[in-house]
Structures are given as structure tokens and as C-alpha cells.
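Methods — Computational structure assignment.
A single polypeptide chain was analysed. Its primary sequence is given first, followed by the predicted tertiary structure written as C-alpha cells.
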Amino acid sequence: MLKKVARLTIAVLILTSAFLIFNQNTSVASTSDHAKLNIFAGPPNVLADNNTYRCIFVQLQDSSGQPARALQDTTISLSSSLTNIGTVDSSIIIPKGSTYASANFNSTFSPGTTVITASATGYATVLSSMTTIGPIPSAIAVYGFPSTLPADGNSYDAIMVQLQDSSGSPARAPHGGVQVMLSCSDTTVGTVTPFATILEGQTYAITSFNTTIKAQTEARTESAIITALSQGYTPYQVTITTTPVASNPNQIKIFLGPSKVPADQNSYKQIAIQLQNASGYAAVNQTAVIVSIASNDQSVCKIDPITIPRMQTYALATLNTTYKAGSSSITAVATDLQWDRQSISTFGFIPSKLAIYCVPTTLPSDNKTYQAIQVQLQDAQGRPAKDPETDVNVNQFSSQPTVGLVSSTLTIPFGKTQATGNLTVTNAPGATSITAQASGYTTGQTSITTYLIDYLPLQITVATNPTNVNNGYTTVITAYVTANGAPVMGATITFASNNGGAFTSTTEQGNGYYNTSFTAPSFSITTNCTITASGSKLGYLNAQATTQLKVTPAPSNNTGTLALCIKDSEGNTLKDTNVSSTVQPTGIQSLVDVTNATGYVNFQNVTAGVYTFEIIKEGYLEMNQTINYDGQPLVLTIALSNSNTNSNDSTISLVIVAIAATVIVIAVVSSLYIVRHKKSPNIKKLEEMQKQLKNKYN
């Protein structure tokens, strides 16, 4: 019964071991199962400009937070909590074998924060927030341009309503636009179009004011107040003045409308240049008037020149903004007319620094390239911003190129706030810091961590240089280690020979190369040595590879005389010392001799190669000496250490030694009796040497 149980146990162990070995040598699956979802937003802030940004990333992870590969195509459902702020792709697919997928976020013109939800069957739902940046509209401002009009009973597109935030900066209308109600305090002066709509994404709208001839009839100025109202917004008012129509103007007057406009590289027809007389009445001229208009900072804005037609009191000029926010003085001049100057400001976020994001923040160390780098221009408060002048060329650096590499440069196009770059990971897991630099901007930095989640098989190729050596000569053996076509660093590589020889320790040369030096053994005939390189590394399947090295015996003339002189530690020669080789080239007989009266042994016609000599002399410590002999005449002196005790020992020590010697003698006698005169190893060695000498000289 016990035998049957034992046999069954052994069988189970054999089958289990076979199964484990099979799996170890065939598995390329993930080292960990996917257990959860994680969602990343990078960058987490974008402009509220109704554009699309690829900035949402959903990743499969194991329970420890490392990336995990999808075992099948995995559908991820996405949603935004506030669609008036922004929307997201309704679903994305993480392909089989991948660890993550990305989604587009579509901002609107409404600034704010929305929560992005990601869910999939069998996984807990995960959340992340996205914030869109821009001025939040809170008031309706109203302007006249010009705010002085001729009382001639005509209609003028001279009323502008503008959305503004709490600081007076222009703000964009949300989805559906903003409807504004307008009213005039005195319809005897003029009337205003009762409604104006600021369209979605726009900051303003223009409507008409219809003058009467009251001021002309009464020969004096008349005024009326225009009020702008809209549900949920603070109302504003402006005063419109009508004047009698004058002739012979002597000055020009600039009316700007709003004093702030967006720095968005757009054109705004909101500057009115009016002809006036000395009393400030709107005036007409008998001929057309050419007006030159200049900005003192053209990097902020430019204004086109205009012509005021004959018998007209004013004309509108076009303001051309850039992406640079700032202030500029506007000067208007015309022949024979007094000039005017006004100030205008453009509003926008002024870029001053770079922000860099790695999304997801963890990746497999699988020697692949991922579009995982996002570089964004930001202002001092961390808000997305556009470069006002040109493309921004960003230099990128990785602190640990052995973990991951980034492209050396990345360009943020003119008029954009961000750009996407590539990260190429290696097969070496670890963490690396990614740095982004650009002229004129504060440097940005982030980090990413890679994990070895796959069992990849190692591939090894091995070569010798040279491939053919003589006995005892050295060759360099190189192993090149890769996995999935990429060099593997940090592997453990060992070398072995099937026919002897000696290896130096393995040296890693970098980029997947590993070297050792091999000293060939000695043979009497040409012999092949099979060199085997074995490689291993945590997270990889082990591998082996072989190469052949041909070892050729030294030429017949590559022999010589080898003389050994044996002395004691004080330099005295020792005769009758037994010298024999215990290691010699393959096919070569052992060298055996006894030192002569001068302490020498002389071996003739010795073949080049590696020898180890055993040297035995009664009263001295036995010694082993290895010699790499090159076939040239060689004389070596070898010193033996005396095994006798120190002559200066005390009397007590001599007594103890005598007692110990007595005990040893008794023990030896007893041992000889018990083992029936069994011979000691040294006596056997001496007898064997004597036999070899007898055979040699007979």
C-alpha cells in the first residue's frame, strides 16, 4: 500500500513539474490580470473654445496599479456630467493585447468643470474632471460708435452690445447665444432696434439707432439713454447724443466702442472715426477725407486706413488683433484736421511656461512607442495660452533613456495651446523624468513609470573572435541578447564549454552585448569546443545559444624545455623533490621527475599549453603550481614552505607536542590495526611517482 501511494505521489510531482516547465517556456501572457479601470485627463485644463482635444485616457490595471493587457477587445462607455461645458466620445475600445485607449473631449464656449465617467462591464466606474478655461460672461455692456450722431433722420449701425465677465473682459456667448433687449429713454431723439442676438461663440452684436431731426430743428444737441437687458446678466447703459449737422469740420474724433476686445487674431469693425466741428457737432465735408490710423504696438493690433466719404460724418475702421494680449494707443490723422488718440486693450492669457503630461502615467516596458506625451503652453496661473508670434519648438529630454526615450523636439503650432509627442519605452522597467524646454518659457517636467508585465522570451546569438585558436590561446566570445527584437540590458549571461578551457567573468558592454574571454584547452589533435551562452532576466523566459570554436594543437616546433628549480623559503635548493603534472594539455602524458642535487627538474620537448604541477617534499608543505607554457625555453623557481614547528617554542609547548605526538602514534597504530594496514594518500602518491619514474627510465 505504501509503495502505491509513493508511486502515485511521484507521478503527480512529475506531471506538475512538466506543466510548470511547459508554461515557463511558452507563456507570453501578462504577469497580472486586469482588475480595474483608471482614467486620466491630460492636460486637465483646456480652452473653452469649442475645439476638440485628445486628452482622455482609460487604462486597464491590475490590483497593484500596474498596466494590464486586455484579454479581448474591451468597450469603455464614457459620459460628461455637464454637456454644456464639454462632451466626450460616447465609447472607446481597448484592443485585445493593449493596456489603454484614448478619447476626444469637445469643449464648448462655456467655461466650467465637468466630470468624465468611464465604465465597462465587470469593472467599477471611474471618474475624472475636465475644466474649460475662459472668461465667464456675467454682464451686458452697451456702446455707441460713434456715440455722437447727426440728427438727420437716418439709421446708423452704431450700437454695440458686448458680453463681459466680472472684470470687464470680453466673454463668449454660450450654446444658443444670448438675446439682448434694448430700449431708448427718449424716442424723440431716436429709436433703437429692440432686440439683438449675440451668437454662440461671439462676444458682441451690432444693432441700429434711428435718429430724428429734433436736434437739427432746435439747433442744439439732444441725448437719449440706451439700456441693454438680458436674463441672468447685469444690465448696462450708454448715452447717445444727436447734433445738428455741421459743415467745415476742423477735427477728427475716435470712438472705440468697447475698450477691450479678445486677443484672438480676428478682425473687429468697431472703431468709428468721425468728422466734427469746433463745437463737437457731427460734420460733413464736401470731399472725401482720407484718414491714416496707426497703432503704437503692432504686435497687439493693427488698424487699416479708412476714407470718410463726402457728405458723410464718419466711417468705421477695422481693428486686427493678434494672439498677444496688451494695450495699444490708436492715433488718427487727416490733412487740415486736428488729430485724435485713444487707447484700446486686447484680452487673452499670456503664455509664460510649459506644462508636460505623461498619460497614462504608467506603461508596459515592452519596447513600443506610445503617443503619451502632452505639452501645453500655460500662463502664470496655469491656464492654457497661445504663443502670440510663431510656432513653439519644444526640446524634450528623458532622465533615464534606458527606461524610455522621447523625440528630441516637439512643435506646438502657432495658434494652438498644445501638442502630442511620442514616448518609446524599452524592455527595462523603471521610472524616468521627462523635461520640456523652450526659449522664453519656464521649463516643465513630469515622470512616468514602466512595468515589466509580459514574459518575453530572450533571444541570444553568440560568436567567437577569432573562431580558430591554438592550444592555450585566448578568444573573445560575444553574446547579443534581445527580446522582441530589442536589446536587453541587465541580463545574467553565463558561458560554458563542453571540452574544458577557462572563462573570465562576463562583462556587459551595453546595448545588449555581453563579452567574456576564453582560454582554449590544449589538444593533441584539432578539436572543436562547443561554447554555450545561457541568459536569464527577471520577467523573461531563459534562453541558450551555442557556437563552435576550433582549437588546433601548436605546430611541431612549438615545444621547448621547461625547467623548475625547487627551493625552500630561505633560498636553499631542495633535491629529491617529487614534481608531477596533474593537469596537462589533452593527449599529453603527465610530466614526472625528481629534482637533482642542484634542485632542478628538466622536462624536454614540452608542448605549449596549460600545466598544473604537484610538488611534494618531505618536511615541506605540498604545493600546486599552474603554468601557461608557450613552448619557449623557460626556467621557473618555486619556493616551498617548511612544515616543521618553530625552534623557539617553550618547554611547555614541547611537552604538549610530545604528548600530542604520542596520542597520534597510538591513534595511527590503532587505525593501521583496524583497517589492516591501509596506506596513507601521500605514501600512495610517492609509490605512484616511483612507479612512473621507474617506467620512464626503464
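Note: The longest strand covers residues 337-347.
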